[in-house]
Write a structure and sequence with these properties.
The chain is an alpha+beta fold. The protein has seven helices and seven strands. The mean pLDDT is about 90.
Length: about 180
């Protein structure tokens, strides 16, 4: 159903508690989500912010359409990158790997340390994830594995769609890639 997830991410109590509180994706006040002036796609296609991180970083749809559009992340540090092809894919990434920002470039051992630290900070992570998934109509048993979700993130960051979703700044210079694909 087009447009079904975004309203829930901003209004459903369990979804908000997980996405804004755990995964750092806040869609509760869409009117306050506006990109800094001059940030745009190199292609000239539409870039529409729909959520933000606590730091002020932006989650944006690319082009025209609904929740099926590619999603890019634009950081205030001058980095940007493709995260998902559609909001459903982003939601699944955040549900299984809410620490996705810390994953690229890490060895398996380093990533496990990130996961362990995250779980120490959010001891009821699995319960909160399952509640949020169910609130969005997703069966938690059908979520991808953390490994599969992170592999998809790597695939997207290296693929042709990533180039089509390149974000530029005020003077037309491309923002740095969100992930150094050589390290992924």
């Amino acid at each position: 159903m087009p447009g079904a997830l975004l309203p829930l991410l901003g209004t459903n109590e369990a979804a908000v508690a997980f996405f804004a509180g755990v995964a750092d994706l806040d869609a509760t006040d869409p009117a306050s989500h506006q990109l800094e002036e001059g940030i745009q796609l190199a292609s000239g296609a539409r870039l529409e912010q729909f959520a933000r991180a606590g730091s002020g970083d932006a989650f944006c749809f690319v082009g025209e359409g609904g929740e099926e559009r590619p999603v890019v992340y634009v950081s205030l540090d001058g980095e940007a990158g493709l995260l998902a092809v559609g909001l459903p894919e982003l939601v699944r990434l955040c549900l299984v790997a809410p620490w996705w920002q810390d994953a690229p470039g890490r060895t398996a051992g380093e990533l496990q340390a990130v996961v362990d630290a995250f779980r120490d900070d959010v001891p009821d992570l699995d319960r909160r994830r399952d509640l949020a998934a169910r609130a969005l109509g997703i069966d938690p048993a059908e979520l991808p594995s953390q490994t599969a979700a992170l592999a998809r993130l790597v695939e997207l960051s290296r693929g042709p769609l990533a180039e089509a979703c390149r974000v530029v700044g005020y003077e037309g210079d491309p923002l740095d890639p969100l992930f150094d694909t050589a390290d992924l």
